[in-house]
Amino acid sequence: MNVRFRRLVRALCHASAVRSAAALLVLACPAPAFGTDDADAPASAKPAEPAPDGDAAKRTSLTRELAEQGEADLQKSVRVFQQRYLVKSGRVELQLGGGLSMADPLVSHRGADATLLVHLSERVAVGAGASKWFGQTTAQFAQIERDFGLFPERSLLQAGGHGQVQLTPIVGKFSSFGIAVLQVDGYVILGGGALRTTRGETLKPFGMVGAGLRLHTLRWLSLSFELRDYITSEKFISESRVLQHVFGGLQLGIWIPPSVTYRFAR
Predict the structure, then answer these.
(1) Residue 110 C-beta-side C-alpha neighbours within 13 Å
(2) Which CATH number is associated with domain 92-256?
(3) How far apart are CA 50 and CA 52, in angstroms?
(4) In this predicted structure, which of 41-55, 99-113, 155-169, 209-223 has the lowest mean pLDDT?
(5) Residue 13: pLDDT above 60?
(6) pLDDT digits (tens, 9 = 90+) for 227-254
(7) What span, in angstroms and rounded, lies between the C-alpha atoms of 150 and 172?
């Protein structure tokens, strides 16, 4: 009995010592951090952010505006193709001018004409015009009458109207003595109409072919050099003949509207 009692007391003492040692070990070790991170921390624990500076914000906005403006200026100044000095598409050209006959040695003509052209594109234009001619016989005509006693029949142009199509296959430019670069284009004319001559009051049909060179002097003004051939049939006493009246002259072109607005091609 005494032996059993002593063994029980000894076991209890040993268990108490183990528990005491475990308690000391727990107190000696730091507790694990199971707390919240910075995002879960209360607002009062976070450091206060500095308030934005008003002058710095203004400087940033100004810098952004200047950068955008500089980019816009760059877009305008850098282009793939050089602009045309004069844009024809969608504009109206009023041509005023005249010329002198060049083919017939027996009669000569001076002419004045006005033409209104609508440019459908940079290459094609359609229009209509009217002409007034002042004809007279030449010195060779008088010499034939005097030397041979002959009285040649004559046909002098008086007035007429026509429609025409203008085609521009050639476009270019050249430098005028280093002062400026001028734009030019070469065109052909196809048309026809009716005219009256000194041989009767009846209107006679005619066809017209020609060619010209247009010099673009200003955005609203151009100067053209033209050759035109008016082809008609005239009835004389002996027979009917096909006559060709070739004219060379100048045309002053006035453009409507007088200015154009460009879009910068990229």
Answers:
(1) 3
(2) 2.40.160.20
(3) 6
(4) 41-55
(5) no
(6) 999 999 998 888 889 999 999 999 999 9
(7) 52
Q: Which amino acid makes up residue 83? A: Q
Quick one: three-class SS letters along the chain?
A: CHHHHHHHHHHHHHHHHHHHHHHHHHHHCCCCCCCCCCCCCCHHHCCCCCCCCHHHHHHHHHHHHHHHHHHHHHHHHCCCCCCCCCCCCCCEEEEEEEEEECCCCCEEEEEEEEEEEEECCCCEEEEEEEEEEEEEECHHHHHHHHHHCCCCCCCCEEEEEEEEEEEEEEEEEEEECCCEEEEEEEEEEEEEEEEEECCCCCCEEEEEEEEEEEEECCCCEEEEEEEEEEEEEEECCCCEEEEEEEEEEEEEEEEECCCCCCCCCC
Residue 215, classified by CB atoms within 10 Å of its CB into exposed (0-12), middle (13-18) or buried (19+), is: middle
Q: What angle do CA 27, 33, 36 make, to 5 degrees?
A: 145
Average pLDDT over residues 4-18: 54
The amino acid occupying position 204 is K
Sequence letter at residue 115: T
Do residues 230 and 157 make contact, with C-beta atoms less than 8 angstroms apart? yes
Cα first-last separation, the chain:
114
Phi and psi at 65, nearest 5°, equal: -65, -40
147-189 per-position pLDDT tens digit? 887 777 888 999 999 999 999 999 888 776 767 778 899 999 9
